[in-house]
Request: fold
Amino acid sequence: MQLHISPSLRHVTVLPAKGFKEFIKVKVGSKRLSYRMVFYCLLFLTFLLRFVFVLTAIDTIDGERKCSTLGCLGKKIGPRILGKRLESTVPEVIYRVLEEPSDQTDTQTRPESPQTLEEFIAEMKDGRPDAKTFAVKLKAMVTQLEERTRTAKIQEYLYRHVASSSIPKQLHCLALKLAHQHSTNSNARLQLPSPELVPALVDNSYFHFVLASDNILAASVVASSLVRNFILPEKIVLHIITDRKTYAPMQAWFSLHPLTPAVIEVKGLHHFDWFTKGRVPVMEAMEKDQKARSQFRGGSSAIVANKTEKPKIIAAKLQALSPKYNSLMNHIRIHLPELFPSLDKIVFLDDDIVVQTDLSPLWDIDMNGKVNGAVETCRGEDKYVMSKRFKSYLNFSHPLIAEHFDPSECAWAYGMNIFDLEEWRKTNISHTYYYWLQQNLKSDLSLWQLGTLPPGLIAFHGHVHTIDPFWHMLGLGYQDNTTLAEAQSAGVIHFNGRAKPWLDIAFPQLRPLWTKYINFSDKLIKSCHIRAS
Reply:
């Protein structure tokens, strides 16, 4: 192609390279057309001719030797404009073979396929098979590799399930030694708090925190991190709730390791008058839920033996068997107004969090009449963690869920929550929670599969006040994308997920944020071989 521009810029001549006698003459008014416009015209013409050249080259490669420039252009652009699909050069027999459903019997009896792409290419070069044989061998290799990958994934999920559901021997050792201390050492069974501090337990001028846990070491980290980072530790009242079996060792730990000047209360569920009298809906629901899950799931062996479900579905079902999802310590938060009838506002903490800042500003947050102050989990830079909506937890294929809720509604997180108990007592939140637990049982656990968050999303629906994400960073227990610097910048970090910081499967770069609140020179810690790594 040759371009000729007259000195006066009144004519632009385009001469095709193959000797066209015709030429295109563009009349240019020197007073109305700028240099830039002329340049853009030339640029467009250049692009158009290059495009035609490329399409012509493609036709030549495809085997079409006789093809003029305009003919190729029409042929190539036409089908695209009309929405038609160009014919593929891949033999149709390959598509037919690949689309045929795999037979399970053939899968088990077929000979060993190549293990790598290099082996497959070598075999194809040696045998020079036709298209059908090529497709059959390729499909066999990919299917076999798929099956091995699936098996390895499921084994990984099973091992993680076992590791996260078991009690490490170090923690079991600590509980036994503390129970022994409680029975033999009077200093390990002190009244908590001391008699002169008992009035603080119902004094709303204090900052009241509630922690429900049967994990002594985890509770000690939450308590230590809370007190050490608080500006006015003498104004802290930490109410620790535990079960009957853990009460004695939990009391022994905080008797032997006081967090003065904070006020620490250790109380077993059996000490609450409300909890020991009459029917407790959440306990009844839990008993039914546990029985239903054992029958419905068939245990981890039955789940892993399933050959048709995807690994992620199997992982979710294994997670549903985790003891924590049927733990009373998880469900008890729905009865906070009854457990603390004299308190107006509390902050509820999970036992897998670490406090890294002063939490007193939480009491200055205006909840605007809402009950639950929580961090939303559908917005944020981390799309893996902060992408949760109602559809992530509830089964919207069930008409009962689809009728009442919006799948795109933003979810929120348990772990660090501000609860306005005054406002809560004006609602029917606890009754709603129990009602939906019953509905899930009646539907064979088809409304949701696991955890206390799904019924919590329902019960607190319309009663949630969104707080700044600084107060609660999530995901440190199920993904390691969070850097140490990012985690250190949060007010509260949450090791939600299987990789708890007290387990061997914890992420090593994040675990120091938790272990820094453990005194590894402590006699009990050393005797149970609890180490930083």
